[in-house]
Design goal:
Layout: E1 3-6, E2 13-16, H1 34-42
Length: 73
């Protein structure tokens, strides 16, 4: 289960899906349901149009992103 942390900046919530130093040198696939996560965190439906999704790495961490796919259910 991801770790969640709220921020006062724009009402954002950070979700940490993986932390630590393993695995190194391998691609890792993660899947999330952004719609359900939003509803659980904010306790309401999202706006009709999303204006952004952020993918971040920690300070001093090199992060490479492969293909990102977004699907409507």
């Amino acid at each position: 289960f991801p770790t969640r942390r709220s921020s006062d900046l724009f009402g954002a919530t950070e979700m940490v899906l993986r932390s630590g130093d393993q695995p190194i040198g391998e691609w890792v696939e993660e899947r999330v349901n952004a719609y359900e996560d939003f509803k659980e965190i904010h306790q309401h439906e999202p706006a009709p149009l999303a204006w952004g999704i952020s993918l971040l790495g920690g300070p001093g961490i090199e992060v490479d992103f492969g293909s990102i796919a977004i699907h409507a259910n």
